[in-house]
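Q: I have 337 residues here and want to know how they pack in 3D. Can you give me a structure?
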Amino acid sequence: MSPSPDALAGTVQALLAPGRGLLAADESFPTIEQRFRAHGIPSTAAQRHAYREMLFTTPGLSESISGVILFDETIRDTLGGEPMGAALARRGLVPGIKVDHGTTPLAGFPGEKITEGLDGLRGRLDEYRGLGARFAKWRAVFTIGDHRPTAAALGANAEVLARYAALSQEAALVPIVEPEILMAGDHPIERTEAVATELLRTVFGALDRHRVRLEAMLLKTGMVLAGEAAQPAPDEAVAAATLRAFRRAVPAAVPGIVFLSGGQGEIEATRRLNALALAAAGPWRLTFSYGRALQDSALARWGGDPAQVPAGQAALARRARNNGSAVRGQWRAGLED
């Protein structure tokens, strides 16, 4: 399919609507089973459907959420008897799809990963487009440690991200490119900043070689944080380090950057997003693409009980509102939490 520049640009602008962000609801089967188990919920197809239905039918969700990242099972599901893609679009939510197949050890490089899923991707992208998807997402992960990440791991994953992005644009889907530095470790924030800068430079070098149109993609990545076993840096330092890495490595042609929560708590992720919005002075629109930092309270309050759907929806709506305020730099602790 020959992509329409106007169609891709329209999707980008819809996803970057002011004061709105993305709901990442693309948990794989093992991930959703782990999260359900923590609340005593069996991970059956019926319960997964009930949970996603609870999330997606939250009243007023589109006021703070612009798009939803789905998993393969979910995009093939229905919502109120309507195909999922069409049902979300009718609710003012842009449907998207996770298309990678997860990570596997990178041969020859202990402790490092490569993301799989390129085999058959062209056909899958066309199918997802037919199911209503308007954007796609692919995640690569990196750990910081002794001599890690290596140049080989950075380069291999950057090439895969670029190939995915080029195929997505060919299929008239906006690619979200997600290189994530995991929080594990005791490294200081300065080390994360250096790695993030090198990683982003490597990724955008590969995107350029593969002729990916930067104006028709989004970057999803983490805030620059110290390792989870290290002393946390103040929010202002997180914002400053994150923006320095972006200014050194992310081309101005990229229209927007969406932050993953990456294991941060709900309040931490909102508070730091607010600090970034207050400090931001660059060409990109910054917003959020959170999974657990939007869903944790909702999942806990729902607990698999149909009678608790309103409680779960109220929790999701509150978190979405708070993060919608944060992307404008208008969130204040204690007012809504």
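Q: Anything worth noting?
A: The chain has one domain: 5-326. The longest helix spans residues 189-209.
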